[in-house]
Amino acid sequence: MLSAKATCNSHGQDSSYFLGWEEYEKNPYHPVNNPNGMIQMGLAENQLSFDLLESWLNNNPDSSGFTAQSVSSFKELALFQDYHGLPAFKNALADFMSEIRDNKVTFNPNNLVLTAGATSANETLMFCVADPGDAFLIPTPYYPGFDRDLKWRTGAEIVPIHCSSSNGFRITQSALEDAYQQAQKQNLKVKGVLVTNPSNPLGTSLSLHELELLVSFISSKKLHLISDEIYSGTVFSSPGFISIMEVLKNKDLLNTDVAKQVHIVYSLSKDLGLPGFRIGAIYSNDDVVVSAATKMSSFGLISSQTQYLLSQILSDKKFTKNYLTENRKRLKQRHDMLEKALHKTGISCLKGNAGLFSWVDMRCLLSSQTFEGEMELWKKIVYDVGLNISPGSSCHCSEPGWFRVCFANMSKETLVLAMQRLSSFVDSSVKKTNHNHWRRHVNKSSRKSKSLPKWVFSLSFATTRSGKNSDR
Ligand SMILES: Cc1ncc(COP(=O)(O)O)c(C=O)c1O
Description:
Layout (H helix, E strand, L loop, with lengths): L3 H4 L8 H11 L12 E2 L9 H10 L11 H8 L8 H14 L11 E4 L1 H13 L5 E5 L6 H7 L4 E5 L11 H13 L4 E7 L11 H14 L2 E5 L15 H7 L6 H4 L1 E6 L12 E5 L2 H10 L7 H12 L1 H29 L2 E2 L7 E5 L9 H15 L1 E2 L1 E2 L10 E5 L5 H22 L2 H13 L5 H18 L1
Parallel strand pairs: 1-11, 3-4, 3-5, 5-6, 6-7
Antiparallel strand pairs: 2-8, 7-8, 9-10, 10-13, 12-13
The structure holds pyridoxal-5'-phosphate.
Pfam families: Aminotran_1_2
Organism: Helianthus annuus (Common sunflower)
Keywords: Ethylene biosynthesis, Fruit ripening, Lyase, Pyridoxal phosphate, S-adenosyl-L-methionine
């Protein structure tokens, strides 16, 4: 009785990324009401600077457009709006996007299309540049929501650009070429490349070298490049953030056809921590894409009231300057706190400089270096330890043992508790595997390196052993 779309399984909801959220919902941690509940570390939400927004609202009580003082705005906002968006908001958003990029580039509000979050922006762009069956290349690991946003309703396909831990998951020329050829082997027409800069889940920003590589790749192969820059305001340490627009500008490409192939996705869900307001945007250098996306935006507009409120917040330059600086500072503190606690336990992370999460290397804790081993560990961490983290396989990582751990959606106290739980789990795992037979190896190895806790070696040996067993 239902359509193929409604009943097909390509939404991606059955990924462990979303399953972890479901498990969390059944038993959410609360410091008083449910102290043994599950701690949500699988949600890339930024709650660290909420107080700054709250205090702005307290100081600007008329900003909602709904108070007695602003009766005329209420009527204006409640009546019909076309899909072009409020000019005041588009101007303020374009300025804010420039401010995040240290005003090294400017954005023309006429090239902005407003959408209900980056989710809608990504899908709308896909509808504009790809037909069903066409493919986009995406570096792995990538945000699990892309399977839903880019493929589900559009019928487009994703082909992974396999990146590896050997070079910190950086994009290389050969990885791009391999993915392109892989798509051709599958008889897929490649329409473009999509990158997230800074990356979710890596928590790193793309280097100038990678960005230049991407520009020359899409230029030589005549492809689109979508740069999802939703985390651009979260870069908290060096190297800084380089927007794809900056690269186009510095290479004198802004008024060329190559610029028309480049589209930016943005949203206030991460930088301002407002995912519930559904404020997203497409910035395209191609007028035809802007026009088509504007018409499509009818299906996911931002409410006029939200646009009105945000136009006032973003026009307050003193506020935005302070917010961006303070938010970066708080993110860095939180990121450093998580990494320090993990290191103490013997777990390392990819060196990150951005985002709301760390990309954590738990290969030493795997019973076998396989995705089955990763799932086994993930289940233990979810059900026994009570932490919802996201396994690398849900982000299409090519190597088992990596996990995305979010740090900005909870209080400091909750993060401390989460790390205590993880540390006890690691200790007990070591006890279980620490047979006499292995202890000799452990002692020998730990004499070689004093900097890592003994369990790292102990578990590495156990892992090698069980890996061998499972090979047989
Ligand atoms: C890379 C990336 N793009 C898009 C989105 C969706 O964002 P929004 O809430 O603005 O739809 C997310 C959310 O986590 C994301 O990480």
